[in-house]
Amino acid sequence: MQGFNKYYPPDYDGEKHGSLNAYRGKHALGDRARKIDQGILIVRFELPFNIWCGTCNNHIGMGVRYNAEKKKIGNYYSTPIYSFRCKCHLCDGWFEIQTDPKNTRYVVTSGARQKDEEWDPEENGGFAIHDTDPNGGPVDPLAALEKSTDAQNHMNQVQIPRLEELQMLSDHYSVDPYMRSKKVRQRFRTEKKLDQARRAADDTLKSTYALPEELALTVESEDSRAEAHKHWEKERLALEVREKAKRRMVGRPPETAPTASSRPSLLHKKLSAGPPGSAISSLRARILENTARHASSSLGGIGPHRTKVLGNKDIVFRKT
Ligand SMILES: [Zn+2]
């Protein structure tokens, strides 16, 4: 039995010897490494399948364990292939089993026979395992020729034109970056100028009519203009009808003073016909409006109704 404590002899020098194993000339794995100079390590190996010993012809069951000599005998790509050499426990014969990384299996190479108990899916109504060996099977020369011709045709008719198209497209887009940048920036400047002009016009309108700063005005177009005009016409007709009714009740002819019915049209004329951004015209419109209001309120009976009418006129006309 190996001791649990380590004895360091008086002449042991860590710098010189490195380790106690090196000092005593022993391997760290002890007796299991007694054939390490031949590249063999003794490991415990368990039979992965049932075998028959080639020497005594006895059946040895799966799972029986041996002290096998493990040795690296080659590589499959970068994966090492190991062989395990075991001595039969019923006779003096030896058998050898190797790993098979290609098929992820073990194979018996000598000294025994493997009992064939592999599951064959094809035999049991399943699908055959796909053969991954590219060199396996007979090669049909005509099929190979056809395949290569197809590939050549595909290359000529599809891939090369496609590549040329891509190259042309790339040339088209990267031929003159300065010109393209210039064009884009020019367009941006134009749009920015238009946007600024529109904003200035909106601000003027808002300040003229004391509209709230955050009020968003719609972008003016033929449709919006026509709609606004239609709305205004409707309101004006309704107002005229009401005015006429009032006057009939009061018993006064409709042609007196600048009436309220003429006022919206006047205001509208000022709004629609005035030059854009003209503060004078809007001021004039406001003065006329005030004059009209004073005149009508001094005549009496119309004041409160007209304020109502003004309240009804809730649409904002943009200057054109
Ligand atoms: Zn045997």
From TrEMBL:
Q: Which InterPro entries match?
A: Saf4/Yju2
Domain of life the protein comes from: Eukaryota
Q: Which GO terms describe its biological process?
A: mRNA splicing, via spliceosome
| Database matches in Pfam families | Saf4_Yju2 (PF04502)
Question: What are the record's GO terms for cellular component?
Answer: post-mRNA release spliceosomal complex; U2-type spliceosomal complex
Note down the stretches annotated as region Disordered: 113-141, 246-278
Q: Which family does it belong to?
A: Belongs to the CWC16 family.
Indicate what this protein is called per its UniProt record: Protein saf4
Q: Which organism is it from?
A: Sparassis crispa
